[in-house]
Amino acid sequence: MIVAFLVIGGFLFWLYRESEAEEQLRMQEAAEEAARIEAEERRARMLVDAQAIQMDASPWEGDTIIVEEQAVASSLGSQGFWMEMPNGNPFLISLSDGVKQENLSLDNGQGTTVTGVVTAMNDSILTAWTESGAIAEGDRLAAEFATHFIEASDVELVELPPEPADSTAADSTGADAQSGA
Predict the structure, then answer these.
(1) Helix, strand or coil for residue 86?
(2) How far is CA 34 from CA 27, 30, 43, 144, in A?
């Protein structure tokens, strides 16, 4: 009978240890899920529609934002590039030193998703870029028109979604689709 009590006691102790390990595993999984959800929510808060920022970036000045799936319009020396916005105007992207070291191939038309801090343009920034040789004097003249730029901490090369079909475009015969000719 003593052996039976010892076996039962040992079994209960084993169950206790197993449940403790399972509880730790469940807590770890819950913590990982909470961290994943928090990261997704943080990313969603940082995501800014390109149409919203294209006319006035002032509301996001000083904020880290993400602008998804926009094409490279042209380069700006070794300092960065112009991102084509939905309205066809360019928006300046300045590459951080870390992004520059990645040696990304940022060809015109290449799709990008940019993460960075919206910064107001000023003359001292332009002077620093020009004096360091990151941009040429001609590029400085173009960059002077930017009121803001994104100091990119991350640039991801992406596939751009296909352009929607334009109903006014010429059909395969070359005739205008709307005129019926």
Answers:
(1) coil
(2) 10, 6, 14, 44
Q: What's phi and psi for 44, nearest 5 deg? A: -65, -35
User: Which sign does the torsion angle of CA 75, 78, 79, 80 carry?
Assistant: positive
Token look-up 């030193």 returns: 97
Give the confidence band of 104 by pLDDT, cuts at 50, 70, 90: confident
Phi then psi for residue 34, to 5 deg, are -65, -40
Integer Cα distance of 181 and 174 in angstroms: 9
Location of structure tokens 């996001």: 60
Give the helix/strand (H/E) hosting 25: helix 2-46
Q: What's the rounded Cα separation, in Å, for the pair 75 and 138?
A: 12
The confidence band for 133, taking pLDDT boundaries of 50, 70 and 90, is confident
Query: 172 or 8: which carries more pLDDT confidence?
Result: 8
Instruction: Return the exposure string of 136-171: e unless at least 16 CB atoms fall within 10 Å of the residue's CB, then b.
Output: eeebbeebeebebbbbbeebeeeeeeeeeeeeeeee
71, 58 contact by CB (below 8 A): no
Element (H, E) at 151: strand 148-158
